[in-house]
Specification:
Blueprint: H1 2-8, H2 12-18, H3 22-42, H4 48-57, H5 66-73, H6 80-102, H7 108-128, H8 132-153
Helix pairs in contact: 1-2, 3-6, 4-7, 4-8, 5-6, 6-7, 7-8
Length: 156
């Protein structure tokens, strides 16, 4: 809370007037960033998430999905951050399902949920990698896996 107050140019008590706990602050930040993050991640097509992840993976520090990171790092006092992160994942899957439907792919919801798992897997594994080159290579592997998934689901 000290760092947040300082970054906002406010006193610590001002921060506590808006957010009684660190958990409340994390939850508010996640809720605020959810729609923007979905738009950023999903982009115009089913593979654009990997382009965005690869660019992000080149930066320091890279911690993968900020929603997963925040939910796993938050004290489990009420689990609110985890619930918001789960809702975020549902929003990502919904956006991917919309793209799959537009592309005429069969079982768009199932495809979207599987694509989201590939995206999350690439982001999580990349977050563990020791350097930007390794992180980018991992994301590219995730993209290749997603390409195989998409190719296997196309109608003849």
């Amino acid at each position: 809370m000290d760092a947040v107050a300082e970054a906002a140019g406010a006193g610590k008590m001002s921060a506590y007037r808006h957010f009684a706990t660190k958990e409340e602050l994390i939850a508010a930040a996640l809720e605020h960033h959810d729609p923007r993050h979905v738009r950023w991640l999903v982009g115009p097509d089913l593979l654009s998430a990997f382009d965005r992840l690869e660019a992000a993976a080149a930066s320091e520090p890279f911690r993968g999905c900020p929603f997963v990171d925040a939910a796993l790092g938050a004290p489990a006092t009420d689990g609110r951050a985890g619930r918001i992160a789960w809702r975020h994942k549902e929003h990502v899957i919904g956006a991917l399902a919309g793209l799959a439907t537009q592309a005429g792919l069969p079982e768009p919801e199932e495809l979207a949920a599987t694509m989201a798992m590939v995206i999350d897997g690439a982001a999580a594994q990349a977050a563990l990698a020791p350097d930007a080159a390794s992180r980018r290579r991992i994301v590219r592997r995730g993209r290749r896996a997603a390409e195989v998934l998409l190719a296997s689901g196309r109608r003849p």
